[in-house]
Every structure is written in C-alpha cells, then in structure tokens.
Amino acid sequence: MTQAGDVTVLLSAEQIQKRVQELARQISETYRGKTLHAVCVLDDAFVFMADLVRALDVPVVCQFVKPKLTEKSKDSGIHREIFFSPEIDVRGQHVLLVEVVVMSGITAEFLMRNLVGRGAATVKLCTLLDKQVSRRVSLQPDFFGFQVEEGFVVGYGLGAPHLGRNLPYVGVLKGAEGTAAASNK
Q1: Binning pLDDT at 50, 70 and 90, where does residue 182 land?
Q2: Which residue has the higher pLDDT, 66 or 117?
Q3: DSSP assignment, residue 133?
Q4: In this structure, how many other beta carbons lie within 10 angstroms of the beta carbon of residue 68?
Q5: Taking residues 172-181, what's their average pLDDT?
Q6: Which residues contact 80 (CB under 8 A, 6 or more apart)?
Q7: pLDDT value at position 159?
Q8: Burial of 152 per CB tally in 10 Å (0-12, 13-18, 19+)
Q9: Where are the alpha helices (DSSP H) in the chain?
Q10: Which of 39, 46, 77, 116 is most enclosed, with most CB atoms within 10 A?
Q11: Minimal CA–CA distance to 181: which of 142, 154, 144, 150?
Q12: CB 110 within 8 A of CB 138
C-alpha cells in the first residue's frame, strides 16, 4: 500500500469530482435524446467510469473491455499486439470509450477503430488525464479532464494493487522518473 508520504498530490479528490461533473454535463449535452453506450477500458478506468456515468443525464448502457498488450521482438524491433474480449455489441449505437489516461494513444486508437468496425454509429473518446507528450499516434480525446506531463501517476483507479489504486486523488510517486503538472485546458 502506498503511503501518503510516498505520493505528491497532483489532483485533489475535489478537483477530480468537479471536473467529472463538468465532463458529464458536456457529454450529456452531446448525447441529449440518445442512449449512450459507455465502454470502460479496464482496469484503470473503472473508478472514473463509475463516477462519470452516475453524473450523466442521458440513458447509459455500461460495457467493459480489458485489452491485453503483448510485446514481441521482431527483426525491426519490438512489435506490440493488442487483444481484447470483443463480447460487446455496439452495432448502430453511440459509443463513448472511457479511459482514465491516454498516453501513447495506441490502445485507444485501436479500440476506436475496432468499435467503428463493429458498426457503432459514432465513437468518441473521454479521458480524465491526457498525456500529450507521450502521444505516438494522431489522436485527440473528444472529452478530457486534465492535461498532464510525464510522471507515474497513481490513485483514482491508476497504479497497481500495491501502488495506490484506492487513493481518492491522483498523485505522482515520489522518485518516479519525469515530472508532472496538471492543467484544465
């Protein structure tokens, strides 16, 4: 369990909840008169998704995907493959892919393409944390809470079981490489 002394608070629980409410208003306005299929990317986004869908003012169907990334060495370097359980049916539906942090964008881009390929009427991306400096693909979230710089963030569902997923705030592990700064842009 991460202790408070090991983590520097980046975003307080109050800041997060205020921004989640603002995002929910924007999303509700965008999907007014429609049923929204919110697809949560497990494991990290479950806390964010729960808070977000409770604040939405439109009918919501919750679905979950858990991608598995594998890296394989090839002649030209390391090759990543993304797999996930395609048990969800989104044909003709309005889909909001929910991630808590978008870094490289590779997983989100793959999942969005896959959801479109499954016949979704629309697919938009919502993330609490947007790490633009880590982006490896041309992808911009449709809805985001905060832009953050490099740093290993924990809390609010992020981290590992022993690294503070249960913290009500987002923090940076002291001594983790990189720095972190947040802005609500």
Answers
A1: very low
A2: 117
A3: G
A4: 9
A5: 57
A6: 69, 70, 71, 72, 106
A7: 84
A8: middle
A9: 13-30, 46-55, 106-117
A10: 39
A11: 150
A12: no
Q: Which residues pair with 8 in a beta bridge?
A: 172
Tokens read off for 130: 């947007």
Tell me how far CA of residue 112 lies from CA of 29, 107, 150, in angstroms: 21, 9, 24
- As to burial, measured by CB atoms within 10 angstroms (0-12 exposed, 13-18 middle, 19+ buried), residue 6 is middle
Partners of 62 in beta bridges: 38
To the question of domain 4-183 being in CATH 3.10.50.40, the answer is: no
Query: Would you say residue 185 has pLDDT above 50?
Result: no
Residue 182 identity (one-letter amino acid)? A
Q: Residues 136-173: pLDDT tens digits?
A: 899 999 999 999 986 788 999 998 666 788 899 999 87
Q: How far apart are the first and last CA of the chain?
A: 32
Written as six digits, the tokens of 16 are 């997060």
User: What percent of the chain lies above the pLDDT cut of 70?
Assistant: 79
Please say whether the dihedral angle defined by the alpha carbons of residues 137, 139, 144 and 149, taken in this order, is positive or negative: positive
pLDDT digits (tens, 9 = 90+) for 65-99: 887 766 666 666 665 566 666 578 899 999 999 99
